[in-house]
Amino acid sequence: MIGFTLRAWNINWDEGTHQHPDERYWSMVTEDISWPGSGNYFDSANSTLNPYNHRSTWVYGTFPLFITKATANYLEKDALIPNALVDAADKLGIGLKETSGTNLTSKAFDSGYNANLIGRLLSAIMDTGTILIVYLLGRELFNRKVGFLSALLQAFTTLHIQYSHFYGAETWVTFFAAVTVLLSVKLFKTIRLANDQSKLFNRSVLQLALLIGVAFSLTVASKFSGLAVGIVPTVAIFLSLVNKGKSKEAPKAAREAAKFLGLAISIFVVAFLCFRLFHPYAFSGFITFDERFLSDIGYLRSVNSGADVPWVIQWVGITPLWFPLKSIFWHGMGPALAIAVVIGLWFTVSEIIRKRNYVLMIPLSFVIVMIGLVSQQFNPLIRYLLPVYPTAAIFGGFGIYRLWHWGKKQKIVSGSKGALYRFSQGVSVILVGGTLFWGCAFVNGIYNDTHPRVSPSEWINENVASGSTVTHQIWDDRLPLSIPAVTPVQLNFVDLNLFRSDRSTDQESGKSKLVTLVDQLETTDYIIEASNRLYSSIPRIPAEYPGTTSYYRALFSGELGFELVADFRNSPSLFGLEISDANGEETFTVYDHPRVTIWEKTDGWSRSEALKILNLFRSIHAP
Questions:
Q1: Contact criterion met (CB below 8 Å) for 614 and 550
Q2: pLDDT greater than 60 at residue 412
Q3: What torsion do the CA atoms of 212, 215, 220, 226 make, to the nearest 10 degrees?
Q4: Which of 14, 57, 206, 257 has the most crowded CB, counting CB atoms within 10 A?
Q5: What is the DSSP string of 279-303?
Q6: 577 SS3 class
Q7: What is the pTM of this model?
């Protein structure tokens, strides 16, 4: 219940304004699709349920999309059971009803664009299920105490709490990946315990193989990157073969290997058939992939390799392996859990080497493969490693368990050694407490306060005069937002396109980008930065953006002639202690707690001085 509470706390955190851009796209597609006629489900070209028949791209899985659409369809009905379920959720504090306006009893969602609230609730439910899987897997690998401790750590993991507040695929792929790991461990242990070699593949083994195939398919049908979890059953079967296939006679050894190969094939055949069922529009024929699906795969590959699109600039100059690990340490897990995981990995490797506890290689293989795949990408987003967090939490729980019991067994020792043993127990307590603090601080600071774009929207309506001219970055959200029951102030907007190269020329006026920018600032009363999306990315390529980099430097120093009059931000905080995550990855901060700054023009503004600051000559002749 604690885990679910953290995940469902204020799920309408943006007050219906759709502040998550990826989630916004999910909502648009949810509105587009509709249930197809009888017999048209697999008709990729004509099905009304196919996202490709409504939008040019869909780089996600369809299973979470379909379940969300179906759930929203049912709950939006004005009928006894749906109404009772929504009322029960509302009494539990889950915001599925309107909180402003004239009709406070109406539902705040529908089965179209506003289905994101149902999507968020399902994300919270799926991730709560992951906590249970973590307990079961920890118990299966170690013991009940490790299972419980790991589940506790998982419940307070920051990144899981955050993505449970988003409508998307991340918590779904993570849940099914964790189930795949659990079932693969059970498969290995079941085969290892089989005494009769001739009855090695009994009903239990075959049932587990079937379930692994289903879980694996649902992982991939939730998000295609879930394909990486296929390493887990592969390793489990290979270790089973090594453990059981000990015949020295070549024919017999070949037969044993063939049996295990057949088991592996059966898993992946089941996985393919289920994937074909739950992600039908990846195909144009029974086994032929749809060209639109293949085009999306190609697009993702290009982006992961550093495609020339503005939103990948944020990763220019990062250290490939260090950056994602740093993001995990400070933001995804927090220092306490991250340290616990490192300690747990040390003990895990020791268990494998010294005690030959090879079952631990099954979950460990998933961690290694995922870190290897993500770290070599140009854009190692923090969420890409979310599927391995449950496994990592188990290693963290094991590490804390070992530290505590190492100190407990030696507590009778006196002197410096006794102090060391007591210190290990103290570290265990600090690691658990630190993880709990980090998770609670995130919920309290981010979801227990008004969204940083809602607050400035109210401020603008109250403090900016009607008829004023304000800026809007075309690669960011426009402020003020449309807030229910609030009459917005009438403003004039100037659209800035600062992700263009400083060498570029405006097609309509024929002026250079920077001259156009100065012309726009000349008519501007307020500069509004809805997040750090541009000013944290553009300076990473000073050769491409020398003038724009100078623009932002002068804006923040006051040299440009604009004064900071409002600054809105939320940070994780608890008991008066604030944790700054301003240096966090864009996808970690911009969605639910961006920093919003508003700058007012002063008498210090000068067109000629602005042109000097932007240094047009240097920009035009940039390499």
A1: yes
A2: no
A3: -80
A4: 14
A5: SGGGBSSSSPBPHHHHHHHHHHHHH
A6: strand
A7: 0.94
